[in-house]
Amino acid sequence: MKKHKITSIYILITAAVVFYFLAGILLNPLIIWTSLPLYISYILVNSAIKSNSIKKLFSAYGFMLFSIIFSIFYHVTWFIDWQGTKTSSSTSALIFIWLPLYSILIGLVGYVIGQIAGTLYTRKA
Question: CB count, 10 Å around CB of 123?
């Protein structure tokens, strides 16, 4: 289980660095809010490791995977200005106020899928 903790820390730190880089701002205090799904992922993985539950670990990784992929996707679309994401509106940056909440909702979908996968895995084992 210790390898899961180390792996999750590497994933979360890498994601935070990617979020910060893709924001394109040297000093960005909003990154603390934007990284909310990463904090929740860390809490879920730690909880799963402490409980020694494979099902919870699958759920935590599902949340982490879905929320991080969604967040990085939007950060990349913003960075490359895909279809005018950044430049089409003067208020388009406000999405970063809501992005963590959207990422959490998407992460909950991953959590449920991870829980189903964890249940199937534990039944086979």
Answer: 7
